[in-house]
Amino acid sequence: MSEAQNVLGEPLQPCSTDPLTGFFRDGCCKTGPGDFGRHVVCAEMTAAFLSYTRALGNDLSTPAPIYHFPGLKPGDRWCLCASRWQQAFDDGVAPRVHLAATHIGALKIVKLENLKANAIS
């Protein structure tokens, strides 16, 4: 199996281990069969984005112990669904992105220039 790549064509870097993120809960924004939401954008949470996504029915702030989910706070890194990131970008509330930790699969939904415009160096 080949190594996962990021949107820059380099080896995919970890997004976060605290909180532990990723579809596979391995700290990386990898994707695979069953990941219908494409959790591939490594983003740094903001209060504005957390409020935005909660209003759209996806509350990422409230802990859900049954799923070992601690709840997110501003500053946490998390693997977001590419389509939700794009929606937030279109609405002007997209969180900043860590390009080295964002899976190349994001480019099927999100334009690289949009990711770069919101990149954390």
Sum this structure up briefly.
The protein is an alpha+beta fold. Helix content is 20%, strand content 11%.
Descriptive overview:
This protein is α+β, with helices and mostly antiparallel strands and 121 residues long. It contains three helices and three strands, in the order βαβαβα. The chain has a three-stranded antiparallel beta sheet with strand order 2-1-3. It is globular, with a radius of gyration of 13 Å. The model has no long low-confidence stretch (mean pLDDT 95).
How much of the residues is beta strand, in percent? 5-15%
Q: What Rg, in angstroms, do the CA atoms define?
A: 13 Å
User: How are the strands of the largest sheet arranged?
Assistant: 2-1-3
Largest sheet: 3 strands, antiparallel
Query: In whole angstroms, how far apart are the ends?
Result: 29 Å
Secondary-structure content class: alpha+beta
Oligomer: single chain
Which percent bin holds the helix content? 10-25%
* Total beta-strand segments: 3
Order of helices and strands: EHEHEH
Summed over residues and divided by their number, the pLDDT gives a mean of 95
Count helical runs: 3
Give the key terms:
121 residues, alpha+beta, 3 helices, 3 strands, 20% helix, globular
How are the secondary structure elements laid out?
Blueprint: E1 39-44, H1 47-55, E2 77-81, H2 82-90, E3 96-97, H3 112-117
Antiparallel strand pairs: 1-2, 1-3
